[in-house]
Design goal:
Layout lengths: L2 H16 L6 H9 L7 H11 L1 H15 L70 H11 L5 H7 L16 E4 L3 H7 L5 H5 L7 E4 L1 H25 L8 H4 L4
The structure holds zinc ion.
Length: 253
């Protein structure tokens, strides 16, 4: 018996002992088909979502849509201590992580919905109440990783596009890169007031594409040019001190 067979036999034994009578069948099937079997139900659930990332992304956004945007919330940035605001528009807005809107233990800080056993999103066990020790869904954690570092998941995204460049339609090279169709600086500039669950789709698969490196470099160049042009325009429009009539600067008394 090889090292791997031995380890898998042990893991399978542990998993089967720990698994409750009710457990998502697809997750169990996934766990038992892994080359290295996860030894606990929680690890089985994590592994399932890690390998079904696009599904996790869809689910997390659907759960967010169930929660909706909290009353009085708007997308803001800031380094203010304790406010829980993202520092940059590159991070997906997450109102339920902000202390002012957090729903408390047993609720997912990413989507706002109740969390059940093993970080599952549905109450398969009929517990009636969420798991007070949990503060995120396994699926939402997987989605969050995709949203915040999509380049780490280029392989899965490539497969989702059948290995074709989203811009040129040509075959994707090894060096292909992940791109946001609508760049995030434009999301902040032009879509800031969109409802929060809609905003999330700019970080999810609806706005992610894998393109060949040359195409990506060209797109980034155009975007940088456009941003520079806007900055120049803004600078030209802003009144400089010398343009303000003298009387307005001095005290009228
Ligand atoms: Zn969630």
């Amino acid at each position: 018996m090889s090292w791997r067979d031995e380890r898998n036999a042990l893991s399978r034994e542990r998993l089967e002992r720990a698994i409750p009578a009710i457990f998502p069948a697809t997750v169990l099937r996934h766990a038992l088909s892994r080359p290295l079997k996860p030894p606990t139900p929680r690890l089985a659930v994590e592994s399932y979502w890690r390998h079904h990332l696009l599904r996790a992304d869809r689910l997390a956004r659907a759960l967010a849509a169930c929660s909706g945007q909290p009353e009085g919330w708007s997308w803001r940035l800031g380094g203010e201590k304790g406010a829980g605001l993202p520092l940059t528009f590159r991070m997906p807005p997450s109102p339920y992580r902000e202390p002012a809107h957090a729903r408390g233990r047993g609720h997912c800080c990413i989507c706002g919905q109740p969390v059940y056993r093993f970080g599952w999103h549905r109450d398969l066990w009929g517990a009636g109440i969420p798991n007070k020790n949990a503060s995120w869904h396994s699926a939402c954690v997987a989605a969050w990783k995709l949203w915040t570092s999509p380049s780490d998941h280029v392989k899965i995204l490539k497969a989702g596009q059948r290995h074709r460049c989203a811009a040129s339609g040509k075959r994707l090279f090894k060096t292909a890169e992940v791109d946001h169709r609508v760049p995030l600086y434009r999301v902040w500039r032009e879509h800031r007031d969109a409802p929060w669950p809609t905003l999330l789709s700019f970080w999810g698969t609806p706005n992610l594409q894998v393109v060949n490196r040359a195409v990506h470099a060209e797109k980034c160049g155009q975007e940088a040019g456009e941003r520079a042009a806007r900055r120049r325009l803004a600078a030209a429009e802003a009144p400089s001190e010398s343009a303000i009539p003298e009387g307005l600067l001095s005290d009228p008394t």
